[in-house]
């Protein structure tokens, strides 16, 4: 398997080497005539890809419908026209095949960005992601670097059922050799994707389909082509003193809504946007818990062996003596995702679930 991936990558690597001189003449990254006040997550991801491809000819995209169709969710819109079919590669419907080729290309010093139409489909390619990509640097004693990004929508979508609506953050965060990132805002999406593409290690980049069209305030410095968000650093989205709420991806928005409701009841909640699941910012989480003395974790994934379970254990290990209440864990229901909208809502954490958990932690349950 490893040899096959290497051989495939060598062929693609040789091909790409011949294309690099032409690719280096790619037009400069887009410039904005005026600083926008808002940016959608889709625009943030697209601009990050555009700028990194312009800055580094070794960066290329591959996946199903990333070129002619401009991406199933239009994340790669306009990139085929700008960079051509040699750097924006439409692939057959064979995740195992094109992921293996991507890993082989990374062995040869290129920087592939591999898109999965949904991370549920990455299960077809998990052998290459883990056995070919994640373990190679360690098994080669540092001689083989695998600078590759696996990206696409992850977690619950809307009305697409069990085979398209699962969170894989805990799955991939379990594996040494991988970095796992989960953006929430446009700033996260733009900065983390840039950092992922520049990173020398394989990165699993978990987006959320329902966030693609959501707009967020954007600062001028975020639009600078050199901007990136450091991997492994959480962000305090809202400061508080009574209870810490950790969340990632779409659940950060829910946590912020819950914090606003709690504030009207006299509870000051601190909301931490994890951004990076592996490495996990244990220092930021524990520092917050030592201030608030309470913890609520929120995730869409299944509860057993989940991200929340790891966070809770981190706090037990490092800050147990600071806790004034049992930790609270909010997760998706322990069932495959239903199709029906009413059942789907019951299977995914809601704002009111977070509010109730925070009130329990503060001993203010109604």
From TrEMBL:
One Pfam family linked to the record: Transketolase_C
Gene Ontology molecular function: metal ion binding; pyruvate dehydrogenase (acetyl-transferring) activity
Chief site of localization: mitochondrion
Keywords assigned by UniProt, alphabetized: Metal-binding, Mitochondrion, Oxidoreductase, Potassium, Pyruvate, Thiamine pyrophosphate, Transit peptide
One BP term from GO: pyruvate decarboxylation to acetyl-CoA
Family matches, as Gene3D superfamilies: 3.40.50.920, 3.40.50.970
Domain of life per record: Eukaryota
Catalytic function, reaction form: N(6)-[(R)-lipoyl]-L-lysyl-[protein] + pyruvate + H(+) = N(6)-[(R)-S(8)-acetyldihydrolipoyl]-L-lysyl-[protein] + CO2
Localization, UniProt: Mitochondrion matrix
Chain ranges of the Transketolase-like pyrimidine-binding domain: 39-214
E.C. designation(s): 1.2.4.1
UniProt keyword Zinc, yes or no: no
GO cellular component terms, A-Z: mitochondrial matrix; pyruvate dehydrogenase complex
Listed cofactors: thiamine diphosphate
Enzyme class: oxidoreductase
Oxidoreductase in keyword set: yes
Assembly and binders: Tetramer of 2 alpha and 2 beta subunits.
Function in brief: The pyruvate dehydrogenase complex catalyzes the overall conversion of pyruvate to acetyl-CoA and CO(2). It contains multiple copies of three enzymatic components: pyruvate dehydrogenase (E1), dihydrolipoamide acetyltransferase (E2) and lipoamide dehydrogenase (E3). The pyruvate dehydrogenase complex catalyzes the overall conversion of pyruvate to acetyl-CoA and CO2.
Protein name: Pyruvate dehydrogenase E1 component subunit beta
């Amino acid at each position: 398997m490893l040899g096959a991936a290497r051989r495939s990558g060598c062929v693609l690597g040789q091909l790409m080497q011949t294309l690099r001189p032409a690719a280096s003449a790619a037009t400069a990254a887009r410039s904005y005539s005026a600083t926008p006040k808002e940016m959608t997550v889709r625009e943030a991801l697209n601009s990050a890809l555009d700028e990194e491809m312009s800055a580094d000819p070794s960066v290329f995209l591959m996946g199903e419908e990333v070129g002619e169709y401009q991406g199933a969710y239009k994340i790669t819109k306009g990139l085929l026209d700008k960079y051509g079919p040699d750097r924006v590669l439409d692939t057959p419907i064979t995740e195992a095949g094109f992921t293996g080729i991507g890993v082989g290309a990374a062995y040869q010093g290129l920087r592939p960005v591999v898109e999965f139409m949904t991370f549920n489909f990455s299960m077809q390619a998990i052998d290459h992601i883990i056995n070919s990509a994640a373990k190679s640097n360690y098994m080669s004693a540092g001689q083989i670097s695998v600078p590759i990004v696996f990206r696409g929508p992850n977690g619950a979508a809307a009305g697409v059922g069990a085979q398209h609506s699962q969170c894989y953050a805990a799955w991939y965060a379990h594996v040494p050799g991988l970095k796992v990132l989960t953006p929430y805002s446009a700033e996260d999406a733009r900065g983390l994707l840039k950092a992922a593409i520049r990173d020398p290690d394989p990165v699993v980049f978990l987006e959320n389909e329902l966030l693609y069209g959501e707009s967020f305030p954007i600062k001028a410095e975020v639009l600078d082509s050199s901007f990136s968000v450091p991997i492994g650093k959480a962000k305090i989205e809202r400061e508080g003193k009574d209870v810490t709420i950790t969340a990632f991806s779409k659940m950060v928005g829910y946590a912020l809504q819950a914090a606003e409701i709690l504030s009207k009841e006299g509870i000051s909640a601190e909301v931490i946007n994890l951004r990076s699941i592996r490495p996990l910012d244990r220092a930021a989480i524990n520092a917050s818990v030592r201030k608030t003395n309470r913890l609520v974790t929120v995730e869409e994934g299944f509860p057993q062996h989940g991200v929340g379970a790891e966070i809770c254990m981190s706090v037990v290990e490092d800050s147990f003596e600071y806790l004034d209440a049992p930790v609270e864990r909010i997760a998706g229901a322990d069932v495959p995702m239903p199709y029906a909208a009413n059942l789907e809502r019951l299977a995914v954490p809601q704002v009111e679930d977070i509010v109730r958990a925070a009130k329990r932690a503060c001993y203010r349950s109604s």
